[in-house]
Amino acid sequence: MSSVPCSFWLWLSVPIAVLGMTGSVIGILLDDRLYGKETSNWAAQAVGQDIANLVAFPALLLLALAASRGSLRAYLGWTGILVYTAYSYAIYAFDVHFGPLFLVWVAVFGLSIYALIGGLGSLDPVRISSKFLDRTPARSTSAVLIGIGSVFYLLWLSEIIPPIVTGTVPEALTEAGLPTNPVHVLDLALFLPGAVLAGVLLARRRPWGYVLAPVVLVAMAFLAVGIVSLTAVAAARGLEAAPGLGVGIGVLAIVEVAVAIRFLSAVDRDAELQDVVKLPSEAHEP
After folding, report:
1. Range of the domain at 63
2. pLDDT over 90 for what percent of the chain?
3. Total domains in the fold of the chain
4. Which residues, 6 or more positions from 143, have their beta carbon under 8 angstroms from its beta carbon?
5. How distant, in Å, are the alpha carbons of 5, 58, 90, 111 from that of 104?
6. What secondary structure letter does DSSP report for 191?
7. Are 48 and 232 in contact (CB under 8 A)?
């Protein structure tokens, strides 16, 4: 991973993946000890997330390798998985009881944040947008991003506002044994507004829209894999689960992957990563 100027950020994929996969394997094998302080519901969700991680981290390494060889498409996909890891490990670090893997979770969370910021900050969005062909499905991709972001925003608000009005606590929080739902926090504060913003920027043909659209779509797809996985684990353990939700999210993941692939296929075949990264002098400009 040394053929592009931003190779340092790509190299961070190695400790992220090694630590993440190690912790996830331990979590799956020793879940009674590691998640013993959690409610049955939250422990099942943690194990389900561990399983999903074993899909995400190898993908992170493969995309980092392809990006190091000059693939712009792989680089954008790589940053999308970093969004997934930062999101997921924020939940591990803040909402799973303190235990032997606490520092592992914190390390993966921190490294993912730094790699994401550094990786995106190394790109020149104007140059990236110029590498997309005229046939780029900008309008349909922006509609998917705005649609998914808006629907989930309304869905979460429908779960939150009624209990606030009645002075009660959402049932999901009681089942998970948590003071607040970290998914609600991350989605409402950061991820869903980011999805809508990416869609709006892309609809207006702004350079950052071309960067953020595939990043958000890839992150959405892997987050959906996590939901499918944790739903399956909950069902396997005899806990109350929503198979229909799992199937629906699985279909949504397929749609997100398909839209991301179609969007990235519009990148000029001759485009390479080194053509769109900021030069050292540009990286220090205000």
Report:
1. 7-278
2. 83
3. 1
4. 199, 203
5. 28, 17, 12, 11
6. I
7. yes
